[in-house]
């Protein structure tokens, strides 16, 4: 029996509602009153005040399916089976209520009984000296000791900047030998795609003050996170997150619009997956009020859109194609996120404007870059000067990492310090000649006609930042 993504999300939330949890709507991707994070990257991030005790939670047991962005994973996207810059994190949380025993038991019950994964393919891990968690897995759940892995701080101690943190216990799913790297030491914890981490159970018992000092929290908490897409990979028994029902529909649309076929050529596939991923991120970010700009999260969005546009170019796309793709994102996810449907026209407008703006300069920019490469070759250099990288950024709208990506395959690096210096100089000039905002070769006010109320300072819509019952 195979469950769809939208069904799995519902099953998870209902399972934990059945265990006394309050199901809350996903919070906005834009953090609320939290300067330590650019974008929400886990289910617990928007719940921090409940963990620290700064705010009283609506109930001691809460469950969510949270929209997440992790740009730190961008290098993996398209290359591993399990990473996206956007994903949905299913979570159950206890604020000083239940602790390890219940959390472990319920995660096992959900995976093996509710969605029916094969228990013999599941492997738990615990933090090195967490014998309490080890014993629960071993004695209560009945997992043989040699199937429970003990890992160190890097994998099994969870923290994100300042705030609550603690040891954790993760659950891995063995997808089978054909997904393995084939190295002799390949086992649970290997970075390859065979043993896929699906669920992280964090036992939040400390508070990190942001400078490495840990204090035992008065109330012990549970914070768990399971990637919905990865759960679907295991349940649907498919190759990667790009093959699960909802994302597969989007991937097919990418192929249709780029006139490509999936699984014919690995380089083409990487581009297909990358576009598929980035358009999901962009669609959700815009629906939460983020606009493409040159700072902060707006710049994250701009980079994602432009990277997707450039890979579209690589596949031979001529006109705009991102808005059409976001339509498929919306169709696939509006079940869980009605705001997508509500903001549909707005999302299309923002994407189309950004794409049009970039397409005015991208071909020219690529041409200039080729000339720069020829000059470098003639001079026997394998480093692009900061000045030239800045020219591409400023005049042709090439985010630095886009230029970097293009040059990487050719063994050319960039003088990044020089780039930063050129950028600073430009900023200083702009400060002097106030009112001049001609970064990225474009008029920064171009978005004002879409909705003047929405700026980079925008911090989410009320109905998103104030949780309500689903
Ligand atoms: P990995 O080691 O595979 O990169 P992680 O240890 O960084 O995962 P956690 O921070 O523990 O992940 O997040 C909890 C869960 O969220 C993971 O167990 C996984 O199911 C999911 N997850 C994390 N990062 C991603 C991602 N980039 N794309 C999809 N799902 C993710
Ligand atoms: Mg990771
Ligand atoms: Mg991990
Ligand atoms: Mg983890």
TrEMBL record:
Cofactor(s) listed: Zn(2+)
Alanyl-transfer RNA synthetases family profile domain span: 3-470
Domain of life where this protein originates: Bacteria
Compartments, record wording: Cytoplasm
EC number annotated for this UniProt entry: 6.1.1.7
KW Cytoplasm (keyword) present: yes
Cofactor note: Binds 1 zinc ion per subunit.
Keywords for the protein's UniProt record, in alphabetical order: Aminoacyl-tRNA synthetase, ATP-binding, Cytoplasm, Ligase, Metal-binding, Nucleotide-binding, Protein biosynthesis, RNA-binding, tRNA-binding, Zinc
Reactions listed under catalytic activity: tRNA(Ala) + L-alanine + ATP = L-alanyl-tRNA(Ala) + AMP + diphosphate
Any one GO MF annotation of this record: ligase activity
Role, per record: Catalyzes the attachment of alanine to tRNA(Ala) in a two-step reaction: alanine is first activated by ATP to form Ala-AMP and then transferred to the acceptor end of tRNA(Ala). Also edits incorrectly charged Ser-tRNA(Ala) and Gly-tRNA(Ala) via its editing domain.
Sequence similarity: Belongs to the class-II aminoacyl-tRNA synthetase family.
Domain free text: Consists of three domains; the N-terminal catalytic domain, the editing domain and the C-terminal C-Ala domain. The editing domain removes incorrectly charged amino acids, while the C-Ala domain, along with tRNA(Ala), serves as a bridge to cooperatively bring together the editing and aminoacylation centers thus stimulating deacylation of misacylated tRNAs.
Protein name according to UniProt: Alanine--tRNA ligase
Annotated organism of origin: Blautia parvula
Gene name per UniProt: alaS
């Amino acid at each position: 029996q195979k469950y769809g993504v939208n069904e799995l999300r519902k099953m998870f939330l209902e399972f934990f509602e059945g265990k006394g949890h309050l199901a809350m709507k996903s919070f906005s991707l834009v953090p609320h009153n939290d300067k330590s994070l650019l974008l929400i990257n886990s289910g617990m991030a928007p719940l921090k005040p409940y963990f620290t005790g700064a705010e009283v939670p609506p109930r001691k047991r809460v469950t969510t399916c949270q929209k997440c962005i992790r740009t730190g994973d961008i290098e993996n996207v398209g290359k591993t089976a399990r990473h996206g810059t956007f994903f949905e994190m299913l979570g159950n949380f206890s604020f000083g209520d239940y602790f390890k025993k219940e959390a472990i038991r319920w995660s096992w019950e959900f995976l093996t009984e509710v969605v029916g994964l094969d228990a013999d393919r599941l492997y738990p891990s615990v933090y090195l000296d967490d014998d309490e968690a080890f014993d629960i897995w071993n004695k209560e759940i009945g997992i043989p000791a040699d199937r429970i892995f003990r890992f160190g701080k890097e994998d099994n101690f969870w923290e994100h900047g300042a705030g609550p943190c603690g040891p954790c216990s993760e659950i891995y799913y063995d997808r089978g030998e054909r997904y393995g790297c084939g190295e002799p030491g390949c086992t649970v914890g290997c970075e390859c795609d065979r043993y896929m981490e699906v669920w992280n159970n964090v036992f939040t018992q400390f508070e990190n003050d942001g400078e490495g000092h840990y204090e035992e929290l008065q109330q012990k908490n549970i914070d768990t996170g399971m990637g919905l897409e990865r759960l679907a990979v295991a349940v649907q028994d498919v190759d990667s997150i790009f093959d699960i029902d909802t994302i597969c529909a989007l991937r097919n649309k990418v192929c249709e619009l780029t006139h490509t076929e999936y699984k014919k050529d690995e380089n083409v596939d990487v581009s297909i997956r990358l576009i598929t991923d980035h358009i999901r991120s962009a669609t959700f970010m815009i629906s939460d009020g983020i606009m493409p700009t040159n700072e902060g999260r707006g710049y994250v969005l701009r980079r994602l859109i432009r990277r997707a546009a450039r890979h579209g170019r690589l596949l031979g796309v001529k006109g705009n194609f991102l808005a059409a793709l976001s339509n498929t994102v919306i169709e696939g996810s509006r079940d869980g996120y009605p705001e997508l449907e509500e903001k549909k026209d707005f999302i299309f407008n923002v994407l189309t404007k950004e794409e049009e703006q970039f397409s005015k300069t991208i071909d020219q920019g690529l041409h200039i870059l080729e000339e720069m490469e020829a000059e470098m070759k003639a001079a026997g250099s394998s480093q692009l000067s900061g000045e030239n990288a800045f020219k591409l950024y400023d005049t042709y709208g090439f985010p630095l990492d886009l230029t970097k990506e293009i040059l990487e395959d050719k063994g050319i690096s960039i003088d990044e310090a020089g780039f930063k210096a050129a950028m600073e100089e430009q900023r200083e000039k702009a400060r002097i000649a106030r009112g001049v905002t001609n970064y990225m070769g474009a008029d920064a006010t171009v978005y004002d006609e879409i909705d003047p109320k929405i700026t980079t300072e925008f911090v989410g819509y009320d109905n998103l930042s104030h949780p309500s019952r689903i």
